[in-house]
């Protein structure tokens, strides 16, 4: 089962959410902790022992990640060897890896706002010293993740602003691509991109207060 695979392989490098070179990406580890907590929360009362084991494993993963991927500023960094900011690191807190009130959650949100944002669109990470828009388009998935992160922090107005800005970046058919060219106001990358539509729907439901 997935939890057992995490226990065995949690120290292994992987290619990360963005399919990059193998490394011990902080997002990969933290999102596993979120998954373990979600499974533990849904466990029946008769399975409380196994649920406790999964919670404990999630705690160990978060602690191990903090030991080598916590930036000196207090935010999560991409990997032990990469101190950069990554918009993917918004998702572990949204998914429950650690509380919304954890200072590392708030510090990561502030860092993404400061380093990866242009005109209320969000880039995945900074590739090099070039301006963000010269390397690639903004990722619409990251814009909706930003809306969810702001909503989790109780910043409702800002969450709606992020949502509406990125919701408007669709083609004539109402479909979303992977990226949005902020300078030229054009869609870029794969079209349609399923994960963008999925997070659009989730964000709309959460902002509406349905869940």
Note the main attributes of this structure.
211 residues; 3-stranded antiparallel β-sheet; 5 strands; globular; mainly alpha; two-stranded antiparallel sheet; 6% strand
Principal-axis shape equals: globular
Series of H and E elements? HHHHHEEHEHHEEH
In spatial order, strands of the major sheet run: 3-4-5
Give the DSSP E fraction (strand runs of 2 or more residues): 5-15%
Rg over CA atoms, rounded to whole Å, is 17 Å
Oligomer: single chain
Broad structural category:
mainly alpha
Q: Bin the helical content.
A: 40-55%
State the separation between the terminal residues, measured CA to CA. 28 Å
Low-confidence stretches: none
Number of helices: 9
Number of strands: 5
Give the averaged pLDDT, no decimals: 92
* Biggest beta-sheet profile: 3 strands, antiparallel
Describe the structure in your own words:
There is one protein chain. The chain has 211 residues and is mainly alpha-helical. The chain has a domain at 116-211. It has nine helices and five strands; from the N terminus they run αααααββαβααββα. It has helices at residues 2-9, 26-41, 48-69, 91-94, 103-115, 132-135, 140-152, 156-167, 194-207; strands at 117-118, 121-122, 138-139, 179-181, 186-188. It has a three-stranded antiparallel beta sheet. A two-stranded antiparallel ribbon has the order 1-2. Helix 2 packs antiparallel against helix 3 (48-69) and helix 8 runs antiparallel to helix 9. The radius of gyration is 17 Å and the shape is globular. The two termini are 28 Å apart.
């Amino acid at each position: 089962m997935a939890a057992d695979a995490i226990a065995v392989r949690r120290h292994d490098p992987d290619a990360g959410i963005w399919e990059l070179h193998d490394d011990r990406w902080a997002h990969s580890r933290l999102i596993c902790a979120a998954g373990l907590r979600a499974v533990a929360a849904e466990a029946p009362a008769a399975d409380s022992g196994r649920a406790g084991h999964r919670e404990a494993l999630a705690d160990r993963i978060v602690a191990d990640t903090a030991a080598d991927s916590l930036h000196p500023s207090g935010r999560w960094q991409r990997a032990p060897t990469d101190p950069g900011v990554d918009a993917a690191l918004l998702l572990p807190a949204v998914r429950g890896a650690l509380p919304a009130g954890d200072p590392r959650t708030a510090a990561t949100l502030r860092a993404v706002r400061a380093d990866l944002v242009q005109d209320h669109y969000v880039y995945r990470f900074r590739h090099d010293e070039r301006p963000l828009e010269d390397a690639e388009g903004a990722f619409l998935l990251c814009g909706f993740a930003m809306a969810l992160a702001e909503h989790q922090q109780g910043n409702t107005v800002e969450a709606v602003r992020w949502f509406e800005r990125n919701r408007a970046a669709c083609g004539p058919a109402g479909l979303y691509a992977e990226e949005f060219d902020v300078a030229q106001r054009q869609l870029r990358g794969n079209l349609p991109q399923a994960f963008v539509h999925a997070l659009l729907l989730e964000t709309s439901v959460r902002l509406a207060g349905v869940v």
